[in-house]
Amino acid sequence: MNKPKAAVWIMLGQSNAVGHATPMSEEDRIKTPLKNVFGLSRKDNQSFTNTRLVWSGYDGCMNLAEEQDHTYSVPNCLAKAWQQHIDAGNAYDLPDLYIVQIAIGSQGVTEDFMWYPEREKKLIPGKLHTADISLFPFTEHIFSLLEDSFRQMGTEYEIIGLHWRGGESDCVKPTPYLEQHLKATYLRIFDRFNQLLRCPPLILHKMAFFDYMRAGDPEGKMLRNMNYINDLFDALQQHYPNASTFDPKALPQYDPNLRGGGLVIQDLIHYSPSVNRTVAEQILEQQHPKQ
């Protein structure tokens, strides 16, 4: 008898991986834990000392890092869309979905930020500006428990995507510092994640916040750094056979004539609910193409 199969989807990064400043309406919130989509609650899994992962029905409060729940994040939008397709009976071949989300706003990968690989190990839970978590070793720890968790359940699994949505905070660093250190830092991070997860599909999300960069950066430093980081993501795509890049300018919402390109909310930094829903729908479509 074949073992049941599961799909694992992962989102890492900073505020756009959290869905910052985009709270769900009451009617869109996941009020009852989903039957076919699962996540990792902070209560049961936010630890460096736990020896197993505890999965529970997905409920919109599954970011293992920052406490900002019920947002129109891609994970929440994907969870809801995945369950709706199964409930509608038109996605009979979709497996159960297991989501891992680890993200804190305003945190890059360079020194002074929580994704910096050599940062002293800390785990202080809380909301944005209270949470203080050394995100790289914490994510290492969670990933190290992943295979055993499915083995204990007797379930075969496939990681369908490891998505990285970060880079904005690193744009504030001096350009020579980025040119000297950033590629090595990302290689350190993704080499380790590839080792732990056996080279899953790695999707690097580019940035496209031109209005924000220009408005707050009259000398153009942050915009140059954003372009440098986007180019680095292209280089990492060439370096890793399992990597690809995602360009938000390819989304149907993108319009260069609109403020924020039509992609972001009024703060000109964070993706709109519509954008995150579309990204989630595209991920679902990749797993279950429309007939």
Structural domains: how many: 1
Spans of at least 5 consecutive residues with low confidence: none
Q: CATH homologous superfamily name?
A: SGNH hydrolase
Amount of beta strand: 15-25%
Give the CA-based shape: globular
Averaged pLDDT, please?
95
State the helicity in percent bands.
Answer: 25-40%
Which series of helices and strands comes N to C? EHEHEHEEEHEHEHHEH
Q: Can you walk through the features of this model?
A:
This protein is an alpha/beta fold and 291 residues long. It is built from 8 helices and 9 strands. The protein has a 7-stranded mixed sheet. Helix 4 (135-153) packs parallel to helix 5 (175-197) and helix 5 (175-197) packs parallel to helix 7 (221-239). The protein starts with a strand and ends with a helix.
Set down the secondary structure blueprint.
Blueprint: E1 5-13, H1 15-18, E2 37-40, H2 42-45, E3 55-57, H3 74-87, E4 96-103, E5 123-124, E6 132-133, H4 135-153, E7 156-165, H5 175-197, E8 202-205, H6 210-215, H7 221-239, E9 243-246, H8 273-287
Parallel strand pairs: 1-4, 1-7, 2-4, 7-8, 8-9
Antiparallel strand pairs: 2-3, 5-6
Summarize the entry for a quick read:
Helices cover 36% and strands 16% of the residues.
Observed structural traits:
alpha/beta, 8 helices
